[in-house]
Write a structure and sequence with these properties.
It catalyses: beta-D-fructose 1,6-bisphosphate + H2O = beta-D-fructose 6-phosphate + phosphate. Pfam families: FBPase (PF00316), FBPase_C (PF18913). It is found in: Cytoplasm. It contains seven helices and 15 strands. It is of the alpha+beta class. The strands form three sheets. Strands 4-3-5-6-7-8-9-10 form an eight-stranded mixed sheet, with helices on both faces. The longest helix is centred in the first third of the chain and has 23 residues. It binds 2,5-anhydro-1,6-di-O-phosphono-D-glucitol and manganese (II) ion (3 copies).
Length: about 325
């Protein structure tokens, strides 16, 4: 059947890719809207103002002009999609109600520009998105119906799961996303590690775990950008990213709703695992929008080893 006028190549490819799965038209439309919004974020990242916005977010982080601009791009697109009920963003202090509760609507939690402070040194950054059915955004991450990220690197890639495998689309020279990898799978054990935070604030269990990784010959691969660092672990299928509890910051740095839940959903559906050191990230019941948690995410054997070291060195 010919595509309806105005249907993007991504929408055609995505519908073909999702055929046979029980995915609502509204969810396909929402994923396509997010993909479209990312093209405007790319433009902002490539040419936008690198200065500060003069405001700070819920976490007391000084917002960059790019944080605010990319947040506005994402929020406007979600509102106009017509299929979104509630919106939460790393850059907004509270939930934004786009529409009153109704059947067939979704709620979205997103980090519009993760790693924004890396743009001025030209390192890769990304947008992270978590999607739930209905209007409740304080659900365990296991209830997500979709999670995705767009990575603005040497190539622009979109990685997503709707719970049936993890797949990658890559932007071509016409700025169209085309399918480039299907059913991406993690291996059981890895050979790279990405240790976030200040090592002189690591607790003993984490320090011993790092020594264990180095003793088995793992290489340190850390860019400071959550999206490229996770993407490297996922695409190589081997490795672990960690941002542990630090002395003085028992919950680490990264945010459950906007960063940990979507990445944990993707990595679990690629055969890896994600823990806060005690329980799976996806089983955390968020009590507030700004909740943070430590994270160990990647190959199952490496995440298990991390939790074992933490248990032994309580
Ligand atoms: P954001 O730019 O959205 O605030 O997130 C930055 C995060 C994440 O990208 C990365 O994993 C982490 O900050 C790096 O933190 P450190 O600089 O403390 O290592
Ligand atoms: Mn930030
Ligand atoms: Mn972030
Ligand atoms: Mn951010």
């Amino acid at each position: 059947m010919p595509a309806a006028p105005g249907t993007s190549k991504f929408q055609i490819e995505l519908r073909r890719h999702l055929r046979g799965q029980n995915i609502s038209d509204n969810l396909v439309h929402l994923i396509c809207e997010i993909a479209e919004a990312s093209k405007y974020v790319i433009n902002a990242v490539r040419t936008g103002d690198l200065g500060v916005a003069g405001t700070s977010n819920l976490y007391g982080e000084e917002q960059l002009a790019l944080d605010v601009l990319s947040d506005r791009i994402m929020r406007k697109r979600l509102i106009h999609s017509g299929v979104v009920c509630n919106i939460a963003s790393e850059e907004m202090d509270e939930i934004y109600q786009a529409q009153a509760s109704a059947d067939g609507l979704y709620s979205v939690a997103y980090d519009p520009l993760d790693g924004s402070s890396l743009v001025d040194v030209n390192l890769a950054v990304g947008t992270i998105v978590s999607i739930y059915e209905g209007c409740d955004l304080l659900q365990p991450g296991r209830n997500q119906v979709a999670a995705m990220y767009i990575l603005y690197g040497p190539r622009v890639s979109l990685v997503y799961t709707v719970g049936d495998g993890v797949h990658e689309f890559t932007m071509n020279n016409l700025m169209e996303f085309t399918l480039t990898r299907e059913n991406i799978r993690m291996q059981e054990e890895g050979n790279i590690y990405a240790p976030g935070g200040l090592r002189n604030k690591y607790n003993d269990g984490d320090e011993q775990f790092i020594r264990h990784l180095e003793a088995k010959g793992c290489k340190l691969r850390y860019s400071g950008g959550f999206v490229p660092d996770i993407n490297q672990v996922l695409m190589k299928g081997k490795g672990i990213f960690m941002y542990p509890a630090l002395k003085g910051s028992p919950n680490g740095k990264l945010r459950v709703l906007f960063e940990l839940n979507p990445m944990a959903f993707i990595i679990e559906h690629a055969g890896g695992s994600a823990s806060n050191g005690n329980i799976p990230i996806l089983d955390i019941v968020p009590e507030s929008l700004d909740q943070r948690a430590p994270i160990y995410i990647g190959c199952k054997a490496d995440v298990k080893a991390a939790t074992d070291f933490l248990a032994e060195h309580k």
